[in-house]
Design brief:
The structure holds two protein chains of two kinds. Chain A is an alpha+beta fold. In chain A, about 20% of the residues lie in helices and about 40% in strands. Chain A has a domain of about 90 residues. In chain B, strand 3 and strand 4 form a beta hairpin. Classes of the chains: A alpha+beta, B mainly alpha. The interface between A and B is large, with 47 and 85 residues.
């Protein structure tokens, strides 16, 4: 089983590894990563990344998509362990920086001590002092 | 935590909320004893992968952001009232002089008063930024910062899933890519069980790194009126 860490979620996925590339089933790309595979490319929200036209066969095969190739195209980091069992699909600095520069507070969902999830956006309407701490 | 609770008690929760996020890769059980002891009435969340530091480009704890009622950042990430006076501490027993403790307390009180003023008065508070000032003060992540967060997250995951050595390699890469992040450096030390005795991930390596800052602050002073300008330590040359 291949594990993918994406947007701070850890997912078990239906994957194939070819050379140094991670290929994911279109079902998992849509249901687990939240990207839609459309004729014009790989899409999320308003953004579509076109399939590389000269090499479509290189990135789509039997219902699997070469995610490594797309992550490279988008300028986002993709890392894996030595055994290629655990993959990390990271965020690019441009998306992080653009979001912060817009001054819209980036949303997140995190558990409290009882494991109940809270999103920042649940508390819209209040002034929020968002602070960090640690035991170390 | 007690200072946050005292402020929260004073301001009230009608229009205000404190969200205290533990940057804690060891998870809820490690944070629990601190939270149980403080018994906060504000919201405490556990962030194993340091997601908040990643999203808000934070580099240390405590770092804080002020977010208004419309979900807009009105003060970007900055030191939440901590002071470099700790750098003069005795490094064997972590004890501090009264002078250093006073300075740190004054810094914290000045900052918390500013938060309280904003919590009550919003945009008209003395230290509230307008949009231009917020944009001028916000620090945006670089390519290496985002790559560092990716390495950190994978490193933590591998470490917590039985691949300690391999995890440490990714953690070392994250620290090299983002040397300004004390979060990555100290969480990695904590995962390697350095500093278990005193409960703080602060060994000779840590203090060497702090000393190497020279006149640069470990806790850059927030731009708050009345915040103490004294360094509170003698830079090592």
């Amino acid at each position: 089983m291949i594990t993918v860490i994406h947007e701070h979620k850890t997912l078990d996925v239906d994957a194939r590894i070819k050379d140094n590339d991670l290929w994911l089933s279109s079902k998992d790309i849509e249901q687990k990563l939240g990207w839609a595979m459309k004729p014009e490319g790989l899409c999320q929200d308003e953004q579509c990344i076109p399939y590389p036209s000269d090499s479509e066969g290189d990135c789509l095969e039997n219902g699997y998509l070469n995610v490594s190739k797309f992550w490279d195209l988008m300028g986002k980091p993709i890392l894996h362990d030595e055994m290629k069992e655990t993959w990390l699909l990271g965020a690019g600095h441009k998306e992080r920086a653009e979001k912060l520069a817009s001054l819209d507070a980036p949303d997140f969902s995190l558990p409290d001590l009882d494991g109940e999830l809270h999103s920042l956006s649940d508390y819209r309407g209040k002034r929020i002092f968002l602070t960090t701490w640690s035991s170390w | 935590m007690p200072v946050w609770q005292a402020m929260y008690d004073e301001v009230g929760s009608d229009n205000f909320l404190i969200i205290a996020v533990a940057q804690e890769s060891r998870g809820a059980e490690t944070a629990r004893e601190f939270i149980d002891e403080a018994k906060p009435s504000y919201l405490c969340l556990i962030d194993e992968s340091h997601q908040v530091a990643d999203l808000y480009n934070m580099v240390n704890v405590p770092n804080a952001v002020w977010i208004d009622e419309f979900g807009k950042i009105v003060r970007p990430s900055e030191t939440a009232g901590s002071h470099d006076a700790f750098r003069s501490m005795n490094r064997q027993d972590f004890s501090q002089t009264d002078e250093a403790l006073d300075l740190a307390a004054r810094a914290q009180m000045t900052y918390m008063d500013a938060v309280k003023d904003w919590a009550i008065n919003g945009a008209t508070a003395e230290n509230a930024y307008d949009v231009d000032a917020t944009k001028r003060n916000i620090q945006l992540p670089s390519e290496s910062t985002s790559l560092a967060h990716a390495n950190f997250r994978l490193g933590v995951h591998l470490r917590l899933n039985g691949k300690e050595q391999e995890g440490d390699k990714f953690l070392a890469t994250s620290i090299a890519l983002h040397p300004d992040s004390w979060n990555m450096f100290r969480q990695a030390m904590n995962l390697r069980e350095i500093g278990e005795v005193m409960g703080l991930a602060a060994d000779q390596d840590f203090f060497d790194r702090v000393d190497a800052l020279g006149e640069k602050r470990y806790y850059p002073a927030p731009n708050i009126k009345g915040f103490p300008s004294e360094a509170g330590y003698e830079p090592k040359i």
